[in-house]
Every structure is written in structure tokens, then in C-alpha cells.
Design goal:
Blueprint (H helix, E strand, L loop, with lengths): L1 E4 L5 E8 L5 E9 L2 H22 L4 H13 L5 H18 L9 H12 L4 H20 L28 H13 L7 H11 L3 H5 L6 E2 L4 E4 L2 E3 L4 E3 L8 E4 L2 H7 L21 H14 L11 H12 L4 H8 L4 H7 L1 H20 L2
Antiparallel strand pairs: 1-2, 2-3, 4-5, 5-8, 6-7
Length: 361
Amino acid sequence: MSIRKEKDGLYRSYVYYYDKDHKRRGKSAGKFKRKKDAVASANELERELNQINLNLRDISLADYFKRWYETYKKASIADNTCIKYSNTLNAIIEYFKDTMLKDIKRSDYQRFINWYGESHAMVSVKKVNGHIRSCIGYAIDDDIIAKDFTKRVQLVADKNRERKPEYLTTSELIQFKDAVVNRLGGQSVSPYMILTAIYTGARKSEIQALTWNDIDFMHGTISITKSWDDLRKKVKPTKNASSNRTIPVNRVLLDKLVDLRANHSIMVFQNVLGEIPNSGVLNKAIDNILASIGISKNYFTFHSLRHVHVAYLIGQGVDIYAISKRLGHSNITTTLNTYSYLIDEYKAKNDKQIIQKLGAL
């Protein structure tokens, strides 16, 4: 180990060790005001590294993934997300069996992706790859492996399994919105939730969790500070820190939501039976409304309204950065990746206008 005093007057401690390839590596144990605290921290880190190397040196990918999931993920995610991690673990067990983590090469992992992709859609392949990539990052930090064998993997999938949702055009959206408004006023709160999704682009769980304190009728905003767990029937934190946001909304929506105060509930969308509609109820309501106006769309669900919201704003020329903030994305790259097909469509339309304008010169 080494202890050195830095320019800021603090002591930084380092621990040095050799990895499985016999290369000397260093790891910081932190910065401290007192030298003896730096030494103590370095000694503790050294013991941890020795224990980690002893316990995990010959661990399989399946066992490490299970350990990682239970340590870092399980306590902070919803039950339905836990199922997705379990599916990834089952795929790892089926393909890699007891293969040691340290023995897996990039070519081995690519063959795993090829195998998994033969019988799954791209969305599933991306999910599994994302889980494993995150896990491998921790394995590198634990000094079990030196390289990330998931880097530059080529994702493949069964195109026949792709479910391509069909979205509403602008004219269809207006028809749909009018039909939703005509359903307001009864005992069902589902139309109110659908209208809220149209005007805010918020996630289903975020809309479900809204309370009257989240709605500022004076300033015309809705604050997203929590989400709803359908399985546990209780409030939980939002998807991530960036999901906490305040969304400006128009007076049309706010004036309609006032109707629900008659339910005398803290939760905006809790019905007279004390229930908050789930995905099944909301999707059925959407199907009925679409059928009533003669519109048929494949795989159009409540979540599709988020895409429709984005499509409408892009079509109106709203800046993508402003849209990203409204959606609660952690960065604009997420928005660009998720809605790239919409952005490409809008770009193609603008390209035609540009050519027309230049032709007038």
C-alpha cells in the first residue's frame, strides 16, 4: 500500500495488488484528514480485496449474477422487474451452466447472444444484454475479471417475434381525444387517466400515483414525485432521480380533473370502490374507445399514449431537449434512442421542405 499527502492537505491511501494476469493494479481507499485514518482504510480495503479474490476467484457467471442481483437490485425494484432478472438468470444457467466467469471470452458471449436471439424478440435480447452488462461492470470492480466481454457484442433477434405497435396519427389522436372526453363524467376514472396521459406523456405508474397535492391548479402544473406499484398496491419512488419533474399542462385537462374531487380521495385516480385502475383495465378502456370511433391499431396500449404524446410534440416542432425533460429522461440520448423512428420521420418531412425552399432561390 502507499499513503501520500495531496495538494489539498488530505491523505490519499492506495492498495496495490496483482490481477489474474499478474498485472499490478492500484485501488484508492479514499482521502482523509489524518494519516492514521488513511492507513486504517487501506488496511481494511486490502483485507476486502484478499477476501473477494479468495471467495470469487472461481465463481460461475450464474452464481455471480445471482449474487449481484440479490445484493444490488432485488431490494430496490418492483416484483415484475424481479421476474425479468430471474428470466435472465435462467437463460445464463441454461446456456453457460457452471462455466466460470473468469473463463468466458467475448466470442463465448457472442455465441450466447446468437443462441438467445434465435428464439426471442429484440426487446428481450436488449433487456438480457443490459442486465448482464451491468453485472459484468461490477465483476470488473470486484477484480474477478479484467475485461468486459460484453463490449461490442452484436445483438441479434428473431424478427418474426417482433411486436410492432401501431400509433395514432395526428388526426386520429384528435378523434381519440374527443371520444375520451365524451366518456368523462361517469363513475369510471379510466378516461380521466387516459386524457392525462395524452396531455402529459407521463408513465402509467406516475399517473396512478398522483395526489391532489401534486396538481397546482393556479400555475397549471402537475408534479411527478412518485410512482405506483400495481402488485403491492402502494406508492413507491419514481423510476430514477430525473423522473422527478414538474410538467406544465393546459387548462383543458385541469378543468376536467376537477370532476374527480367528488370521490373524496387523496389519490386523484382512486375510484368510488377505492381502487386505482391497472394496465388491464386501462388497456380495455382504450380498446373500447378506439372501437367506438372505428380505429384499429395493433398492440396499442396505455404506454403507447406516451409515444403518441412525443410524436405530436415533435410534429409541432417542439425542441427535443424540452420533450426529454418533460418525459423525465435522465438525458437527451435516452429520448433520441427511444424515439429515433419519430425523429427520423420528422427529419424526412423537414428535408422535403428544405429542398422546396432551396428550389425557390
